């Protein structure tokens, strides 16, 4: 038989070319020859004209059959030579290798295949796999179809003898080369390959295959996964109750997803109910699972660690090791945690521990389960890399902390602004009656200057919390930096210079000019300190077009046109571990008394509130570069109208102001300041008192001057009620919070103005007077 001759595995000369002929082609050639002969015979019988036509057609068919015969023979000879050349290589392949036709009939088997399948000649590829894999036809058809389309296909399957990798290559259009390779045939796997139960699960949790260990465990051939694990779904790396032939057993489960919706479920029996498990959990069995697993005694000594655990922890087991020497962090000593886990009534909970020997922030999640073995009570620890999870937790905790600090800063700023308003306001009242020749004038100046410094510090707190009041306007950045250059050079000192390089075609931007200047001064001062007062600080400003969303430092800069402002120094640089903390409030690398830690937090707050982005790059010992990106605007710069100065003589004594302020010191200062300017002031300590005063229809009120946040009714609420009866009254809101803190709360109140605290005597009187000029 030809296929048997081809399987000989002997020198290539024994391979016949006939085995390469496609039977379908042979039948087609024979049919053409028969039909051609029939047409020639018919030509001898019929009339002359019809006979000529039939003869011509018959000769055509005979010609086709001849050409087809010759072509098929040449093609078969080519395939025969190709197979002979391949056989010289395949003969010495250590893996069993077969060559089959499209119908699966085997035409060649190498020497390794003969040793693997010694029981007689192989007629088909299915015969080769029948001994190791139940019903292989579906698998073979699937792989052959993939190889026909893609050129090759491969799949790892689990057989009764262990793991097998089956690979098929398209040899030519009508034949295929099959290769069977044992996977993971190391000593540990050879010893325990049949000792670890394994199930192959299809769609609907149907059990497609069980190895010998699984059959022995179940004592039967269940058809569905529910018959083995009643509590579904299974969690890979977790423990689940399995139904064995001897009763419920606690098992460590691991799942591997395969193709075509199939899964492989490995499970390691740990406990037999409440009874002692038969045998010990060996390291060779644990090595079969890609999970990191440790065996521990009650005091934490590592009795065994599989390969995955040794790789995860970066250890070897050449010397005794204890878990407490490798991991730390459950909030108590590791030995106490292990002792507690051995108690019968303790619920097992995983812990996140830090790996001591990692040299960085490397965390593992550790789950413990009790194991009762022949040599006593033990613990089985399942480890998984939790570094990414802990990183996300730290980022979330940091964002929560920043939010809490921001809210705290906003609240503190409100209280401080009330105090500073009273301090600076009464100082202004005292200075109105003194000149520079008075003995206490210099003391009053000091009080006022320090109050202004305190107000600036409060402004930084509000900038960090992004609750400061901004007055955005369209700016020419080249003009802003040009005006600021002289001041910046004075800040850095005589031995340093601030070099400003601005693109001549720079676009406009929208920001609060005063706050933008504060940002530039903070960055330049930091650069000066980093360079020790010597060298150059470079400020560059250019246009930058972002054509695709730019992801950096956990933010995404959307597509658009931006102004890129860079402040660069050649100072000491920032260490990598400190680089991500520089924008945190109160974090500073300066010595005590040299910095508040609010400078860069202020920069971050102002830039973010202005709709921009700030990034930092630094190399320790070489320098630092801060990059600010602001959205570009195409709007022209508006000319600022010069406000008309109010004529105090015309309005003195002609206006009535209802002052509503819950802080008595602020109310006292504001009342006295307005009276000195000629206004009639009616005071109220809260909104309810103000509404009670307004019930008098004979009372004439021109301006409501009210705090925003007060006990009871807030400012906008009581003002709306009052305007229902007095729609022509003007309104001035004052607050220690930013105007954005109650954004939208007074939009419906026509011609209302906002005056942030702390305010000076001049600012208060001018704002109220402006309302009379509207």
Automatic annotation (TrEMBL):
Taxonomic superkingdom: Bacteria
Keywords per UniProt: Membrane, Phosphoprotein, Transmembrane, Transmembrane helix
Key word Phosphoprotein present: yes
Residues covered by the Response regulatory domain: 656-772
Alphabetized GO MF terms: phosphorelay sensor kinase activity
Keyword Membrane included in the entry's annotation: yes
Domain Histidine kinase residues, every copy: 411-634
Residue ranges of the TM segments: 27-47, 54-76
Reactions it catalyzes: ATP + protein L-histidine = ADP + protein N-phospho-L-histidine
Classification via Pfam families: HATPase_c, HisKA, PAS_8, Response_reg
Listed InterPro entries: CheY-like_superfamily, HATPase_C_sf, HATPase_dom, His_kinase_dom, HisK_dim/P_dom, HisK_dim/P_sf, PAS, PAS-like_dom_sf
EC number(s) recorded for this UniProt protein: 2.7.13.3
4-aspartylphosphate modifications at: 707
UniProt xrefs under PANTHER family: SENSOR HISTIDINE KINASE, TWO-COMPONENT SENSOR PPRA
Record-given protein name: histidine kinase
Species per Swiss-Prot/TrEMBL record: Thalassovita autumnalis
